[in-house]
Specification:
heterotrimer, A mainly alpha, B mainly alpha, C alpha/beta, A: mainly alpha, 6 helices, about 75% helix, about 0% strand, B: mainly alpha, 23 helices, about 80% helix, globular, binds sodium ion, transmembrane transporter activity (chain A), transmembrane helix (chain A), membrane (chain A), cell inner membrane (chain A), cell membrane (chain A)
Chain lengths: ~190, ~425, ~300
């Protein structure tokens, strides 16, 4: 039950990230199409219309942050965050197990710390009503919330894996990475 | 002497964390957090959140995931296969054969993208599977890719030249033009190296079929049309002023989608796979970039890069010795900071020294870019290495080993532009008058 | 005590040079009890983050472009309203009227203003000569915030968003054909590479401001506080003089590099003044009673 809820949460954030990535593309393409229309209008009528998407550079930046942070857990669980495993792979199995626990502990702790202070950042932006400085004033806590959600999910997922590791169950990323390696070799 | 001991401690810590298998981004964050806690009294957690947020929501950075997405689409289409099929007959007589596709592919793509990570990701996504399948030696595939992808920074447009130009008040247009000839020089060096290596190791380079007549070759070249359309479209959108260099990445994605649709290799599954693949890879890079940004700020708070640079300044070196010292300084910092961060952190101390020594700041910009390129392929923190490990699963240390000859070639290029500065200054000077 | 101070602009900018002198003054006046370590060119915090970093106590002091906060409260953007204050004397008067309100607004965020220095008057950069407002109609005009967008629309120009590093490329590829910015930015980005004409319309004099975190300030002893405030006052005076000199030198640099330095025709200026008045009236409505108060103090 909990397992399923968590897994769909992780996956959902990944899909949302992909959506934001396509939104960046869509937004920029719209602006480029506007530029083309403007160029044509200059050629035909001699004056440009001045079609712009207001604050489009701000929005692209915010979408990028959302895409990056919301994808953190999905990327972690599919084994795509990179690490150096060369030294470790030469150690005996029991030492590898301990090291894996250390890695998960370190990452969960760092992630939790990071999440806590990000919550603090979002809270401050919220109570001070911080606004973006572009043409459209956006309350900055809204895009910042994507960073908070992404990091919070990552912390949960890492603790999840840490727990699995302690209980002797396989961790998410290795399993998925093996599948990935197979798909490459096919 | 703390200028030396503190960075050494932090470097040691970084190696320890990375070596124990902690994810790269977490290692960078960890070193930053611990370094700041020990050596400064700033509120670490708040600085962490502010810095990472500031570094992550950047319009200029948005080109990176878009180019990565474009690479994913091309990889799943017949375009990359067609490109190799079309080029293969022409390269049969050149020692090294299709390895040169990596070099020229990166060189051309560098004219489209401003970063070396995007160049490595896009070209690598297509070329690594093709070249591996054709039996080229892994070491040369990885080496040529890691090395040539650094051209993304030198051939305009270039993110780092923009950063340097803004920080030092040099004209960005002139810097861009100054990067052209050194870019050609590097391509020549890389091609030359591949030719010599291939002549010495003939048995390792697979044969490409070569019983085609000239007309058949020309007909085969038709397969290159989609790729030419793609590159032409992206470059065209920049130079006709329809798209800024950042926007051009989105043009690339749309063109790639249209072309793979036209060649019948786009369906719902490949579209979604490509999008998810791009989401993962760009997230991996963005997280490392965030870690690097924080480590940079942490270093800024400790004041280490500045005191190191000042320390070099006190040695009263001749211009050549100064350049030598700065090269070593940049390479060492480049081992554990991202190249752009090195420039941001140290220009305010280094530029006065450089100008006092009578070195042209425009020339020095290109010098810096080449040094930063070198830092992209040195472990542990080298973004081309990260991208290639992400693409292949091959360990960064092995990739770094494969890239070592190209590191040395970059060093050679540095020596050449130092002895013959006209390689850099010729074109911008023509533009000035 | 040692204070880290992030600033957004490069070392060669006169604002940064003024702040470097300010840091020296502070060190001297306090006998090294307070040392200000500069982190220039956004090397510590990026420009949009500097204010919040000072507010959160991550750094005790910092500099930023004041009208960057214009969305938070229009008062911060008073100095960026076109053709309201168009020379150094008026700009100084405007700052005197603006200062108490700005101080009150910053106080709510635990910040206090230390000093503020104006940029040189903003001029018009174009690829062909502009003699009347109508000449700007239909050409692509660089915008970067709400005010510049409004100005472009009122001029009948086509607003185009261009980020600073992208300016030369945007001009040379025709994505943009006109912009309003200071002679400093023009000379530093080697504007002669991509535009012909600089029309000295002196549209407005925006300011940079240096702010202090109040908690950090209170932690200093009385003598250090006084020394800091005195050094700030001195830096403000010096900064405005540096700004005037900057205007002359940078216009000369552009002239020396072959740009046409044009005095605007009366016809052009009167056209601009009309549009300026409309924008200022709208701004006053947005800013509410504080805006009216500011304008009446300024116009006294
Ligand atoms: Na490039
Ligand atoms: Na490196």
């Amino acid at each position: 039950m909990i397992r399923n809820t968590l897994d769909s949460l992780y996956k959902g954030a990944g899909w949302l990230a992909a959506l934001f990535l396509s939104a960046i593309c869509l937004l920029v393409v719209c602006q480029v199409v506007f530029n083309v229309v403007d160029r044509l209008s200059t050629l035909i009528t001699g004056t440009a219309i001045g079609l712009t998407i207001p604050s489009y550079s701000d929005f692209t930046g915010f979408f990028l942050a959302a895409a990056s942070f919301l994808a953190l857990t999905y990327t972690m669980r599919s084994g795509h965050h990179i690490r150096v495993t060369l030294i470790r792979s030469n150690l005996p199995h029991w030492m590898q197990e301990i090291l894996e626990g250390w890695c998960l502990l370190f990452a969960s702790a760092t992630s939790a710390y990071f999440t806590y202070y990000t919550a603090n950042l979002v809270y401050e932006s919220y109570i001070y009503h911080d606004l973006s400085s572009g043409m459209i004033a956006i309350p900055i806590w809204i895009p910042q919330a994507s960073m908070l959600i992404g990091l919070a999910l990552l912390t949960i997922s890492l603790s999840d894996d840490l727990l699995c590791h302690i209980c002797g169950k396989p961790v998410s990323y290795n399993k998925n990475l093996e599948e990935f390696a197979q798909s490459i070799n096919e | 002497m703390s200028e030396i001991t503190i960075p050494l401690c932090l470097l040691g810590l970084l190696f320890l964390l990375l070596g124990s298998g902690i994810w790269v981004a977490f290692s960078l964050l960890g070193v930053g957090i611990i370094g700041m806690m020990v050596f400064t009294d700033a509120p670490v957690g708040n600085v962490l959140a502010t810095t990472v947020w500031g570094a992550s929501n950047s319009w200029a950075l948005a080109a990176l995931p878009l180019f990565i997405w474009m690479g994913e689409i091309l990889f799943r289409s017949k375009l990359s296969e067609n490109m190799f099929e079309g080029l293969a007959p022409w390269l049969t007589h050149l020692p090294g054969r299709l390895l040169h596709v990596n070099i020229f592919g990166c060189g051309i793509f560098a004219a489209v993208s401003g970063s070396s990570a995007a160049t490595a990701a896009t070209i690598g996504k297509m070329s690594i599977p093709e070249l591996t399948q054709r039996g080229y030696p892994e070491k040369m595939i990885l080496g040529t890719l890691a090395g040539s992808a650094t051209l993304g920074l030198l051939i305009p447009p270039s993110i780092i030249l923009i950063v340097y130009g803004v920080a030092t008040e040099q004209s960005i247009a002139r810097l861009f033009i100054a990067g052209l000839l050194p870019g050609v020089l590097l391509v020549t060096l890389f091609v030359g190296y591949v030719i010599i290596w291939s002549l010495l190791n003939k048995e390792q380079i697979p044969m490409e079929e070569n019983n085609l007549s000239f007309m058949e070759k020309v007909r085969g070249t038709k397969r290159l049309i989609p790729v030419i359309l793609l590159i032409g479209g992206v470059l065209g959108s920049i130079y006709t002023g329809i798209a800024s260099p950042t926007d051009a990445a989105a043009v690339g994605v749309v063109l790639a989608l249209l072309l793979s649709r036209a060649t019948g290799s786009l369906c719902k599954e490949t579209f979604i796979e490509g999008l998810l693949g791009a989401t993962r890879t760009s997230c991996m890079i963005a997280f490392i970039l965030a870690g690097a940004a924080f480590l940079t700020v942490a270093m800024g708070f400790t004041g280490i890069p500045k005191s190191l640079a000042t320390w070099i300044g006190t040695m009263d070196l001749s211009p050549y010795a100064l350049l030598g010292a700065l090269t070593i300084f940049f390479v060492v910092l480049g081992c554990f900071l991202d190249g752009i961060s090195v420039v941001v952190l140290t220009t305010s101390v280094i530029m006065p020294m450089v100008q006092a020594a009578g070195i042209d700041p425009l020339w020095f910009g290109i010098f810096v870019v080449i040094v930063v390129e070198m830092s992209q392929i040195t472990p542990p923190v080298g973004f081309n290495l990260f991208v290639i490990q992400g693409l292949t699963g091959i360990n960064i240390l092995r990739v770094a080993h494969a890239a070592l000859p190209f590191f040395l070639l970059l060093l050679t290029a540095l020596a050449i532009i130092t002895v013959v500065p006209e390689v850099v200054t010729l074109l911008p000077n023509m533009m000035g008058s | 005590t040692s204070w880290d101070m992030p600033t957004p602009y490069p070392d060669a900018t006169f604002h940064t040079q003024n702040i470097a002198l300010f840091a020296e003054d502070v060190k001297k006046a306090t006998d090294g009890k307070l040392v200000i370590k500069l982190h220039t060119a956004g090397s510590l915090f990026k420009h949009p983050e500097i204010k919040n970093a000072v507010r959160g106590g991550q750094v005790p002091i910092g500099e930023f472009f004041m009208s960057l906060l214009g969305n938070e409260n229009p008062i911060f953007a008073a100095d960026s309203q076109p053709f309201l204050a168009t020379n150094y004397d008026d700009a100084k008067k405007l700052w005197n009227a603006q200062k108490p309100i700005v101080a009150k607004l910053l106080d709510k965020q635990g910040l206090m203003p230390l000093f503020s220095v104006a940029w040189p008057p903003q001029g018009l950069y174009t690829q062909k000569a502009i003699n009347r407002v109508g000449d700007i109609k239909g050409i692509k005009f660089r915008t970067y915030n709400a005010t510049s967008e409004k100005l472009a629309n009122k001029l009948g120009a086509a607003p185009t968003q261009v980020e600073v590093p992208d300016i030369p490329q945007a001009f040379s590829t025709g994505r943009v054909a006109a912009m309003i910015t200071s002679p400093s930015t023009g000379a530093n980005s080697k504007a002669w590479d991509f535009v012909e004409d600089f029309t000295d319309i002196q549209a407005w004099l925006p300011k940079n401001i240096v702010v202090i975190n109040k908690r950090a300030f209170r932690r200093l002893d009385k003598e250090t506080q006084t020394a800091l405030l005195q050094a700030g006052a001195k830096a403000e005076l010096r900064g405005w003089e540096m700004s005037k000199k900057e205007t002359e030198t940078k216009i000369q640099v552009m002239k020396d590099n072959g740009m046409n330095i044009i005095q605007p025709s009366p016809e052009l200026m009167s056209g601009f003044k009309v549009i300026g008045n409309e924008i200022v009236t709208e701004w006053e409505k947005e800013a509410g009673p504080a805006g009216t108060e500011l304008l009446s103090t300024y116009r006294k």
